[in-house]
Design brief:
This protein is α/β, with parallel strands linked by helices. The chain contains 6 helices and 7 strands. The protein has a 7-stranded mixed beta sheet, sandwiched between helices. α1 (about 15-25) runs parallel beside α6 and α5 (about 125-135) crosses α6. The protein binds 5-O-phosphono-beta-D-ribofuranosylamine. The site of 5-O-phosphono-beta-D-ribofuranosylamine has 15 residues, from α1, β5 and α6.
């Protein structure tokens, strides 16, 4: 059973999809810890309701950036995590975490990277950029995390057509809905080879 650590800052619908898939036996995994920089976010509430340890780590708990970085990496290790999932986590990871967990951190991004990724490209900004660019196709990218925002080897991508009457809001809704199944399906391929 693969042990997952999920990093999230927002509503946590992707986290919920993972929790549900584990519960329903769709994913041979267990979320052993959820970590957030936002103690009040939906993801933290979802974790608590599911009985999963929910840890708040941020500039408030650790004003020193290096201490925060180490605390994050340590918390993942303490919960014996095999694979780290960034599911709407808004902070850049520190050097220690990136080194300690190299090759074991996965991020989901709601566009076809490298299009519409990088600093500032999160939440509604991504979908606004897709509409403004006049793209006819957008999608979802799941990739391993390297140093910078939205960089690292692609694991899986799926395309989603942009409808002529789409605005950023309708597109955001549709892409997010598709993220849930796509994330679970991609994680299934990743966890199938992990420890039993
Ligand atoms: C998703 O669109 C994800 O791709 C992006 O942040 C959003 C998180 O949504 N990185 P939720 O918190 O899982 O509902």
């Amino acid at each position: 059973m693969t042990r997952l650590g999920v990093l999230a800052s927002g509503s946590g619908t992707n986290l919920q999809a993972i929790i549900d898939a584990c519960r329903d036996g769709m994913l041979a995994a267990r979320v052993t810890v959820v970590i957030s920089n936002n103690s009040q976010c939906g993801a933290m509430k979802r974790a608590r309701s599911a009985g999963i340890p929910a840890i708040h780590l941020s500039g408030k708990t650790h004003p020193d950036a290096e201490a925060l970085d180490r605390a994050l990496s340590d918390a993942l290790a303490e919960h014996d995590v095999d694979l780290v999932i960034m599911a709407g986590y808004m902070k850049r990871l520190g050097e220690h975490t990136l080194n300690d967990w190299q090759g074991r951190i996965v991020n989901i991004h709601p566009s076809l990277l490298p299009r519409h990724g990088g600093a500032g490209m999160y939440g509604p900004n991504v979908h606004r950029a897709v509409i403004e660019a006049g793209d006819e196709v957008t999608g979802i990218t799941i990739h391993y995390v390297e140093g910078d925002y939205d960089t690292g080897p692609t694991i899986a991508q799926t395309e989603i057509p942009v409808a002529p009457d789409d605005d950023a809001e309708s597109l955001a809704r549709r892409v997010l809905e598709e993220e849930h199944a796509f994330l679970v399906a991609t994680l299934r391929t990743l966890v199938s080879g992990s420890r039993g």
